[in-house]
Design goal:
Layout lengths: L1 E4 H6 L1 H9 L4 E5 L2 E6 L10 H12 L11 H9 L1
Parallel strand pairs: 1-2
Antiparallel strand pairs: 2-3
């Protein structure tokens, strides 16, 4: 998997899309930090809406956690011990 800078990616977008069509994956970086990924559409099924909805339903099934109210001073003091 290759990394490419944002400026170069903008300059060569059509080439990057063609590479994705061939099954390649490219990471786009900004200031040497990964910010985006160009992947073939076959990999898009991972982000299917039905999977997102199932994940959200699973999160909503968790029992709520009771949090005791505390002041900022209390939290700072607790963090120092």
């Amino acid at each position: 998997m290759e990394s490419i800078g944002l400026f170069e990616a903008k300059t060569h977008l059509s080439e990057l899309v063609a590479r994705a069509e061939r099954g390649e994956e490219v990471i786009i970086t900004r200031h040497n930090k990964p910010v985006a990924r160009i992947v073939p559409m076959g990999d898009a099924a991972v982000f299917a809406p039905s999977r997102r909805h199932a994940a959200l339903r699973a999160l909503q099934d968790f029992e709520p956690i009771d949090v005791v109210p505390a002041s900022l001073d209390d939290l700072i003091s607790a963090g120092r011990t």
